[in-house]
User: What shape does this take?
Amino acid sequence: MFYAISGINGDYEAYKRALKKLKFQNLDDIKEEDIMNEEAVISTLEGEDVLYVLGNIIGAGKGSLKILQDMMSRDNVIAVVGENEYRIAASLKALDDHIRSTGNVPPQAIMDRITSMLGDGLTEVVEEFVKLDDDEREDIVDYIDEISEEAFLEVMMARRKFVLVHAGIRGFDPHKELDEYEVEDFVTEPADLDKTYYKNRTLVVGHVPTTEIDGSGRIVRKNNNVAIDCGCGKGGRLGIYCLNNDSEMYV
Assistant: This one.
């Protein structure tokens, strides 16, 4: 099955509950004693799911980097960049460069300036990041760089076409190809759910929690748009949208 989530905001426990609820698996889930067992491998792959994560993976929760580390270990978790990842990428790269060149975390005054610029929601991420070793920091920087190149995804499922982005599509033009937009066009401006972006494709978005859209804290469908950020890490739940059958789950 193919699922989409958005707005984990560093809530590692919610992320793990989602994987458990979906019985999500890939090759990493094969037991060591079965790794050379062809039947066990085939059985796992036949049941392999795909999870699309539409940004704001990291946030105020205390497990942002653990989520990223888990995601990067799974070949069937595919992410697009969110506003939080977009905002923090350059800062994490600069911090990594500084620690590598000096062997030390920057002075507290500089750390305070960085966290003040990023805002409270990303302070915890910075504090977690500087505690990692060189290899772990490099992996995180590289992974955020990698997903920053994926600002949108186009998916065909059950004869339906989907466009998956973090926020909306700034400056939308129905005659414009998605790869003609800039990354920032997909991460900063919320989708207008009162607007039909596509007649023949479903736009799936996050960015604005549905607790702020209609107060429901549930997945919202409107005008061929699906808003799936249900406020996880902000007092709401983590919504899980199934592309195969338009169903939804929550943890």
Observations:
- The helical segments are 12-21, 38-46, 64-72, 83-102, 108-118, 120-129, 134-148, 210-213.
- The first strand starts at residue 2 and ends at 5.
- The radius of gyration is 19 Å.
